[in-house]
Amino acid sequence: MGKAIVVTSGKGGVGKTTTTANLGTALALMGKKVCLVDLDIGLRNLDVILGLDNRILYDIVDVVENRAQLRQALVKDKRFDDLLYLLPAAQNADKNSLNPDQVRAVVDELKPDFDYVLLDCPAGIEQGFMNAIAGADAAIIVSTPEISAIRDADRVVGLLEQYPLAEAPKLVINRIRQRMMQDGETMDIDEITHHLSIDLLGIVVDDDAVIRTSNNGEPVVLDPKNPAAQGYRNIARRIEGETVPLMNIEHQKVGVWSRITSIFHRNK
Amino acid sequence: MQQSVVLKASNDGYELIFRQAASFETIMVDLKTLLDRLQVDNTTNKQIAFDISTEDRLLTAEQTQQVTQLIQRYSLFSIHKLAADVILTADAMTMIERDTVHLINQIIRNGQVVTITGDVLFFGKIHEGGVLRATGSIFVMGDVAGALEAGYPDHNEAVIVSDLSTVPRVRVGELLELVDPAKMATGTNVVYINDIQALDYQPLNQLKRVRPKLFIQNGGHI
């Protein structure tokens, strides 16, 4: 029986969908069978980040309204030999097209066939959020080091205390700008974790490649050398129960020679 | 056999005692007999208001109505007070809740409102956007970055005892305001409603002066 994990944040734009795509991919790379469920009804884009947007026939609303079987709606990611699937969101519906019982039923149907079911939660704390947490056993709260994102994450942790899941929520701090954090311009990892008083699952640095790769429909986690990818891979390993030390995010000061060589690299 | 209804006279007037060992039906029969006899004996035409004690028995609303109706049939008699020596468990629990200082050690997060009946001694954390609301007073030993509301909704005698340096908003009774740094003392403050019905702040050492009643317990001074 698999485990359903909801990826949520409260605030929009902190990287829930990117995190869902990359963690799902990282778990698939580790040989786990994963299903990603896009619950952002009306504004789906998990399919775009995975490069699966041209292969959608049916969506989750078709499934709950019995227009399609669950397995007909699942989109297989061919890069991962039967390990990674996506259940897309509907584009021509809204969050009220689903209710928590329907989502729970879909997730319960998926769990026996997968090791992990990752639920991509929409922004906000309304119906879409309630739907997403209904089927989940655990939650990953994604926040950036911005105060507004941390406040919203705090709100979401409070709501999860009100509707407790089987496991306590865990925190992922996303889009860390090393230099700003080091200079004290944003809260640091310890401050954020202490403030929210929940366990830290992992950190992901801000990297241009995240946007570049998602534009190409290839999650950044596929590049093992990329620092953001390493962050996601570490989180996936921790989800699997491994003990992985927190990656060093100290900003390296760029020397004169590095700058000169980087100019040549750029011009290549 | 012991009577089910006992009539006692004192300086305060007449008291009717419904013995708890007797059934309500027996009491009603005996009460009628007693009142009939009293009416005959009452030659002065003086009005009598009874204090009724039901001992360790709580009458239901229906039973109370039956007793009231029976007594109202006699023009000279009325009920001054109807009381029992006991109260409902639920009422007792409410009283305990109201009169207890609750020790709270939890995180109140953004958007959460924790409401407590009675006084609160708070050891936890209130995050920005969280609200701790008590019907009584609030005494804070933890970290507060959210709002404190004491005496909610209208108990104006309540106080807030807290360091206010990180508290954005306070409410006592019906008055609320954004914390005014100009009024704030260093360290722990007492927020209360003063004689001119305005929110005022005092240093902690003034607590006994502004609310002496906080330090008086049942039975007198300690």
TrEMBL record, chain A:
Residue stretches making up the CobQ/CobB/MinD/ParA nucleotide binding domain: 5-220
Keywords: ATP-binding, Cell cycle, Cell division, Nucleotide-binding, Septation
Keyword Cell cycle attributed: yes
Domain of life: Bacteria
Role description: ATPase required for the correct placement of the division site. Cell division inhibitors MinC and MinD act in concert to form an inhibitor capable of blocking formation of the polar Z ring septums. Rapidly oscillates between the poles of the cell to destabilize FtsZ filaments that have formed before they mature into polar Z rings.
Similarity remark: Belongs to the ParA family. MinD subfamily.
PANTHER family for this protein: SEPTUM SITE-DETERMINING PROTEIN MIND HOMOLOG, CHLOROPLASTIC, SEPTUM SITE-DETERMINING PROTEIN MIND HOMOLOG, CHLOROPLASTIC-RELATED
Name of the protein: Septum site-determining protein MinD
Species per Swiss-Prot/TrEMBL record: Lactiplantibacillus dongliensis
Gene, per the UniProt record: minD
UniProtKB/TrEMBL annotation, chain B:
Extent of the signal sequence: none
UniProt KW Cytoplasm keyword: no
Gene3D superfamilies for this protein: 2.160.20.70, 3.30.160.540
Domain Septum formation inhibitor MinC C-terminal: 104-177
Pfam annotation, one family: MinC_N_1
UniProt keyword annotations, A-Z: Cell cycle, Cell division, Septation
Record bears the keyword Cell membrane: no
Domain named Septum site-determining protein MinC N-terminal: residues: 5-81
Complex formation: Interacts with MinD and FtsZ.
Family in the record: Belongs to the MinC family.
Protein's name in the database: Septum site-determining protein MinC
Native source organism of the sequence: Lactiplantibacillus songbeiensis
